[in-house]
Design brief:
Helix content: 25-40%
Number of helices: 18
Radius of gyration: 25 Å
Distance between the termini: 42 Å
Shape: elongated
Number of strands: 14
Strand content: 15-25%
Largest sheet: 7 strands, mixed
CATH class of the largest domain: Alpha Beta
Length: 476
C-alpha cells in the first residue's frame, strides 16, 4: 500500500529526527521523565506490550514488558530501536496498513499509542483494527497533547525548545473518547498531567503534583491519558460464584442469609468467615450447614480480626470464578445479588460496587451524619480514582477471582493498610484499570445485632484513606 502524501511527510520528518531524538529528550528531560513515570504507573512491569508509533523504543523499554513489540512508520527510528533494544521486537511500517499489522502475531496485555493518534488518517478504523490483538482483559493506553496547547508548542518549536513536528490531529479528550466508542472500546480511566512541563528549579514538580491534580485545573494540563478496554466478546460463560459472608456476632442473620439468597448459577459456594463471635454465631453456622446439605456451605474462622482480615482469608479459600462479599447484617438485601452477578457475568463491569445512596433507604438505616459523610467521601473518591463512586463503604463488592489474584500479586504497591477490606479492593481495582460499575440497592435497617461501625473512629480512618489514595493514586 502506497503512503499518502501526508504520511510521506511524516515519515521523512521522523527519519530526519531519528539521530537527534536523544538530544531533544535530554533537553526536555523533566517532561519525558514525568510522562514515563505515569505510563509506568498505568502499565505494570512484566505485561506483554504492543506500542504503535514506538519511535526509537525508549518508552517500550521503560515499561519493562515480558514481551515488547513496537511498530513505527520511520525506518530510521526502527533501526535505532533495534540496535538499542535487541530483546524487543520492532517492525517498520504504517499501522493503518493491514498488511503491516498482520506481521505482528499474538495478543497483548497492553496496547500503547503515545503521541500516535494525532498522526492517523482514520482514527476510528485504526482503533477498530486493534481488536485482533486484544483479550477481554487487554488495556488500550492512549496518550496525547491537550489541544489548546497547540500554539504554545508551536512557539516552542520556533524558539528551538521543542522537537520539530509536522501537522497532526489536535483532539480533545471527548474527541478521542468518541473514536474509542466507534471502535468498540470503553474508557475506564481519564487523567490529565503536567500543567507545567518544565522543572523551574523544582517549582514545576510541586505545581504539577499539588495544584495540577485539582479538579478543573487539571484540565489545563499538557498531557492527556485515556485507558480503555475492548467491548467485544467480554461476557463470561456460566461462571461459578462464591458468596463470602464475613460475620461477627450475627447469629440471628445466618440462616436468613441462606434462605433469602437467590441461586445465582449452577455452581455456587456460600462461604462464611467467622470472626470470634460471643453470641454463638459459629455454632449457628454449623447448624445451618447441617440443615441445608444440598447447598455448598462452608465456614472458616478468622486468624486475625476485622473485616479486612476476613475478606482476605475468604477470598484466599474461595473456589468460584466470581467472588462476592455480602455483609452478614443483611442491610444489603441478599435478593439483590442477582443484579451483581448479571452485571459482572455479562461484562458490564469488572469491579461491581453496591451503592446505598441512590434509592431512598429505610428509616434508621443510616444516620444523617453518616449519610452526609458518605456523600462527601464519594465525591472525593470519584476525583481520586477517576471513576464514579457514590458509595465507597457499601459492603457488597464483586470481582472475578482472576482479577483478584492479579490484585493480590500487586498488593505491595499499597501494602497492608486497610482494616475495612473495602479500600484494599477499591484501590486495587483502580490501579489495575478495572471498569467499575455501581449497582444501586435499597438499603435496609439492621434486623439483628448492633452495628460495628463507629462514626468518629471510622470517620477518621476514612480521612486517612483519602490521604493514602491521594499519595498513591493521584500524585504519582
Amino acid at each position: 500500500m502506497n503512503l499518502s502524501k501526508r504520511k510521506q511527510t511524516i515519515q521523512a520528518s521522523a527519519d530526519t529526527l531519528a539521530a537527534s531524538r536523544d538530544t531533544w529528550i535530554r533537553r526536555n528531560s523533566f517532561y519525558y521523565r514525568d510522562d514515563r513515570k505515569y505510563m509506568q504507573f498505568l502499565v505494570r512491569p512484566g505485561q506483554s506490550v504492543l506500542e504503535l508509533g514506538c519511535g526509537t523504543g525508549e518508552l517500550l523499554n521503560a515499561l519493562g514488558p515480558s514481551r515488547g513489540v513496537g511498530v513505527d512508520l520511520s525506518g530510521e527510528m526502527i533501526r535505532v530501536a533495534r540496535d538499542r533494544y535487541p530483546r524487543l521486537e520492532f517492525f517498520q511500517g504504517d499501522i493503518e496498513n493491514p498488511d503491516v499489522l498482520s506481521g505482528v502475531h499474538g495478543q497483548f496485555d497492553v496496547i500503547v499509542l503515545s503521541d500516535t493518534i494525532g498522526y492517523l488518517d482514520d482514527c476510528a478504523q485504526t482503533l477498530e483494527s486493534l481488536h485482533r490483538f486484544c483479550t477481554p482483559d487487554t488495556r488500550l493506553v492512549v496518550a496525547y497533547f491537550g489541544w489548546f496547547w497547540e500554539p504554545i508548542l508551536k512557539l516552542g518549536e520556533i524558539l528551538g525548545l521543542k522537537m520539530p513536528s509536522v501537522e497532526v490531529n489536535w483532539l480533545s479528550t471527548e474527541d478521542t473518547m468518541g473514536f474509542l466508542h466507534l471502535a468498540d472500546f470503553e474508557p475506564v480511566r481519564r487523567e490529565w498531567r503536567q500543567i507545567v512541563p518544565r522543572s523551574l528549579f523544582g517549582l514545576g514538580s510541586l505545581l504539577n503534583r499539588f495544584v495540577g491534580t485539582l479538579p478543573v485545573i487539571r484540565r489545563l494540563s499538557l498531557r492527556n491519558y485515556l485507558v480503555a478496554r475492548p467491548m467485544r466478546d467480554i461476557a463470561m460463560r456460566d461462571p461459578s460464584v462464591t458468596v463470602m459472608i464475613p460475620c461477627r456476632n450475627e447469629r440471628g442473620n445466618i440462616e436468613n442469609a441462606v434462605k433469602r439468597m437467590p441461586r445465582l448459577c449452577s455452581d455456587m459456594e456460600i462461604l462464611y468467615v467467622e470472626g470470634h463471635s460471643q453470641d454463638g454465631t459459629l455454632d449457628e453456622i454449623k447448624r445451618v450447614i447441617d440443615v441445608y446439605p444440598e447447598l455448598d456451605i462452608k465456614v472458616l474462622v478468622q486468624d486475625g480480626k476485622g473485616k479486612g482480615d476476613a475478606v482476605r482469608k475468604g477470598f484466599a479459600n474461595a473456589r468460584g470464578d466470581i467472588l462476592m462479599i455480602l455483609d452478614a447484617d443483611l442491610t444489603v438485601p441478599p435478593e439483590d445479588l442477582t443484579k451483581f452477578y448479571k452485571a459482572i457475568a455479562d461484562g458490564k463491569g469488572e469491579f461491581i460496587n453496591g451503592s446505598r445512596l441512590v434509592y431512598p433507604m429505610q428509616d434508621q438505616a443510616m444516620r444523617f451524619l453518616n449519610f452526609l459523610a458518605n456523600r462527601t467521601f464519594s465525591w472525593l473518591f470519584t476525583w481520586l480514582l477517576n471513576q464514579r463512586y457514590t458509595d465507597t463503604l457499601c459492603g457488597t463488592k464483586v470481582l472475578t477471582r482472576k482479577n483478584y489474584e492479579v490484585l493480590l500479586a500487586n498488593r505491595s504497591y499499597f501494602g497492608d493498610f486497610d482494616p475495612f477490606g473495602d479500600f484494599d479492593l477499591i484501590f486495587g481495582a483502580a490501579k489495575l484499570n478495572l471498569k467499575v460499575v455501581e449497582v444501586p440497592i435499597r438499603y435496609a435497617a439492621r434486623a439483628y445485632g448492633e452495628t460495628q461501625i463507629s462514626r468518629f473512629r471510622h470517620g477518621w480512618l476514612l480521612l486517612k484513606m483519602v490521604v493514602f489514595a491521594y499519595r498513591k493514586l493521584k500524585i504519582v
